[in-house]
């Protein structure tokens, strides 16, 4: 799908936004119909208005209580459930940009395998909204969702590389890819170890956009399917593992947003994706193996299902060698984060208070929630086993998201600042602006915060 607004047209039908408890606008000519249907203006509530011939004359849309918007700032997404046709806002809304973006995000459907895609309602971009910027943000999110929703049979490392190449060409970026046995020659041993058992070769995708200004390096976990390796997952845990490349998908969507909104201008953007499948074969890496990373740190593999941090570690070490001003990793990394905060509130880790505050503020401002968690130094001992420098899966199950973040931080020495997002990448139940399925998390918050965190 492509996010798009409808062109202005005399045939477009009006939507009348109504706050909860507010009177119905007289111009809507609604009469007693809203009261008869029980319409009260609750957030997301829709009341279709008939004309004299029994056709559609327009609709009322409930804004709810504006003082309680918080997480529902994109509540206008529910209006995308209106009947097929073109619609326009017949009265102002408090934030036309949010209303327009909410509509586009709510309109998304994954239609790749549908023989008859569902019809959709289209919105004329509201007056005062920045149509080009909103469409660019929505396009980045659509890309992320499409990539996550595509099953691993059609989204392995080969296809993820192809998607990255398409995006790089579209935004005018340079791309290089190191794959297969070349990973060993280029000193990416842990990416190679995790992905070597799969039919499609492991690889490191490296995209660069811009040559001047402060440097931002984004690292996205690209595990295209995760069986758990020899520590195989049970079926109940493997069913959604096509989404284990959600960090890479979100990173690619973010790059599309940065380029489409002009935010990439005046900055040096680098995107690294270690793309692998964690498969099972005779040459799969084993529990108890000790791997030597690109940085030289040794890692004891105490669980082959904790593979994401291994591939990220080599990519982070490469990124840190250039001393970028800011490094951000995006990864569907731990179940512990979901237990602690649920599916739609990803934790993030950052030692720099000003950067963390900017991200927290932006997350609330654009309804892309994040919650700061600590790099808790006393837990460093938990990731240090007896026979190697690091343990990829500390025993005991305590503080799993924190210890994973601490593990990654060991490979970021040299970066100006480091932010890690432990995302889920999946919407289990449909919500405003987030249909059930793959979803980007954190990208819009990063985009909004960028002027403050990387001016």
UniProtKB/TrEMBL annotation:
The family line of this record is: Belongs to the peptidase M17 family.
The answer to keyword rRNA processing applying to this record is no
Stored PROSITE patterns: CYTOSOL_AP
Q: Which residues cross the membrane?
A: none
Q: Would you kindly state one Gene Ontology biological process term found in this protein's UniProt entry?
A: proteolysis
InterPro entries given in the database record: Leucine_aapep/pepB, Macro_dom-like, Peptidase_M17_C, Peptidase_M17_N_1
Keyword Hydrolase annotated: yes
Tell me which PANTHER family the record gives.
LEUCINE AMINOPEPTIDASE-RELATED, PEPTIDASE B
Q: Where is the Cytosol aminopeptidase domain?
A: 303-310
Q: Give GO terms: molecular function aspect only.
A: manganese ion binding; metalloaminopeptidase activity
Q: CDD domains attached here?
A: Peptidase_M17 (cd00433)
Protein name per Swiss-Prot or TrEMBL = Leucyl aminopeptidase
This protein's UniProt keywords? Aminopeptidase, Hydrolase, Manganese, Protease
Organism's domain of life? Bacteria
Task: Give the UniProt entry's GO cellular component terms.
Answer: cytoplasm
- Xref: Pfam families: Peptidase_M17 (PF00883), Peptidase_M17_N_1 (PF21337)
């Amino acid at each position: 799908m492509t996010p798009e607004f409808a062109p202005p047209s005399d045939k477009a039908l009006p939507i009348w936004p109504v706050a909860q408890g507010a009177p119905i606008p007289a111009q809507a000519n609604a009469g007693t119909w809203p009261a008869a249907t029980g319409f009260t203006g609750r957030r997301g509530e829709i009341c279709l208005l008939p004309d004299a011939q029994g056709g559609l004359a327009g609709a009322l849309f409930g804004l709810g209580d504006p003082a309680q918007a918080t997480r529902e700032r994109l509540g206008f997404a529910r209006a995308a459930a209106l009947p097929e046709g073109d619609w326009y806002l017949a009265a102002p809304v408090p934030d036309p940009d949010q209303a327009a973006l909410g509509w586009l995000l709510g309109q998304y459907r994954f239609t790749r395998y549908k023989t008859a895609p569902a019809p959709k309602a289209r919105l004329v971009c509201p007056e005062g909204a920045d149509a080009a910027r909103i469409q660019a943000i929505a396009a980045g999110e659509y890309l992320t969702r499409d990539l996550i929703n595509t099953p691993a049979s059609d989204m392995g490392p080969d296809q993820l590389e192809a998607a990255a190449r398409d995006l790089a060409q579209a935004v005018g970026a340079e791309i290089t890819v190191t794959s297969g046995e070349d990973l060993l020659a280029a000193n990416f041993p842990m990416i190679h170890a995790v992905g070597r058992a799969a039919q499609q070769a492991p690889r490191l995708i490296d995209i660069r956009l811009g040559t001047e200004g402060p440097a931002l390096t984004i690292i996205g976990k690209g595990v295209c399917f995760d069986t758990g390796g020899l520590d195989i997952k049970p079926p109940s845990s493997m069913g959604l593992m096509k989404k284990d490349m959600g960090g890479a998908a979100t990173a690619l969507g973010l790059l599309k947003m940065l380029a489409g909104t002009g935010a990439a201008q005046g900055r040096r953007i680098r995107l690294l994706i270690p793309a692998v499948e964690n498969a099972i074969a005779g040459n799969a890496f084993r529990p108890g193996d000790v791997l030597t990373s690109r940085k030289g740190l040794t890692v004891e593999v105490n669980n082959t299902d904790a593979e994401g941090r291994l591939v990220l570690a080599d990519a982070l070490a490469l990124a840190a060698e250039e001393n970028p001003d800011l490094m951000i990793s995006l990864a569907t990394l731990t179940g512990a984060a979901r237990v602690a905060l649920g599916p739609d509130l990803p934790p993030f880790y950052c030692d720099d208070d000003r950067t963390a505050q900017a991200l927290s503020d932006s997350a609330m401002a654009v309804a892309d929630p994040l919650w700061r968690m600590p790099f808790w130094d006393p837990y460093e001992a938990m990731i240090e086993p007896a026979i190697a420098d690091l343990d990829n899966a500390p025993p005991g199950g305590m503080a799993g998201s924190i210890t994973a973040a601490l593990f990654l931080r060991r490979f970021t020495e040299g970066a100006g600042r480091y932010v890690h997002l432990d995302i889920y990448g999946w919407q289990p139940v449909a919500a405003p602006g987030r249909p059930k399925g793959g979803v980007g998390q954190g990208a819009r918050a990063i985009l909004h915060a960028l002027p403050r965190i990387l001016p």
